[in-house]
């Protein structure tokens, strides 16, 4: 996802630069284009933050699944030992 946002933002920046180069330095349109460029850069920043958050959530999910599996294995071992002890009595 962040790659797509970054590609779009790069294209926006290219277009903005091309148009700005054709405008006079004090043009209101040039100021507006600067705002658009800033918005595109902000979108990239937020896309990266979202991607980082997604990775953290995926890592936490993996950790939880591993912990759950370990607990399940421990419970199974305890039950087996308990059954073995019960059968000896």
UniProtKB/TrEMBL annotation:
Gene3D superfamilies: Designed four-helix bundle protein
Compositional bias segments (type: Polar residues): 68-89
Top-level taxon: Eukaryota
Residue numbers spanned by region Disordered: 67-89
Protein name per Swiss-Prot or TrEMBL: Uncharacterized protein
């Amino acid at each position: 996802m962040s790659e797509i946002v970054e590609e779009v933002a790069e294209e926006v920046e290219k277009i903005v630069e091309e148009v700005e180069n054709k405008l006079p330095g004090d043009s209101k349109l040039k100021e507006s284009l600067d705002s658009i460029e800033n918005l595109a850069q902000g979108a990239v920043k937020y896309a990266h933050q979202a991607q980082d958050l997604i990775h953290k959530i995926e890592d936490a999910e993996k950790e939880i699944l591993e912990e759950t599996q370990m607990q399940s294995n421990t419970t199974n071992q305890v039950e087996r030992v308990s059954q073995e002890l019960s059968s000896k009595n």
